[in-house]
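Sample entry (114 residues):
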Amino acid sequence: MFALRIRIGLSAALAGMLAAGPAAAWSHSNAYGGHSSGTYGEGGTHTNAYGGSTSHAYGEGTEHTNTYGGSTAHSYYGGTSHTNVYGGTTTGARNVIAANTSDRFALNPAVTWS
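Predicted structure, serialized as tokens:
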């Protein structure tokens, strides 16, 4: 009788594992207060402990906002745009050199824009 229960239990567990497909959604928190979640075929989001966030929509693109208010967006179809905390922007299309509208180069003073 005991052996029959074990076989039935193992059969039920195996059937459950085989019937389950890939996870349709996921979520994860990290030790520092950040959180990530997503849905298969749709995209995902991430928020860090300092207030920055990133989101991705499948087939559309990705957006990121940092803690200080700067943001970057990239389209699935090409092209990227960045706005810094001072309001300056950098944009670029696919296979095109970026153009910058800001006179502030706090992170890389060696970069020059025309």
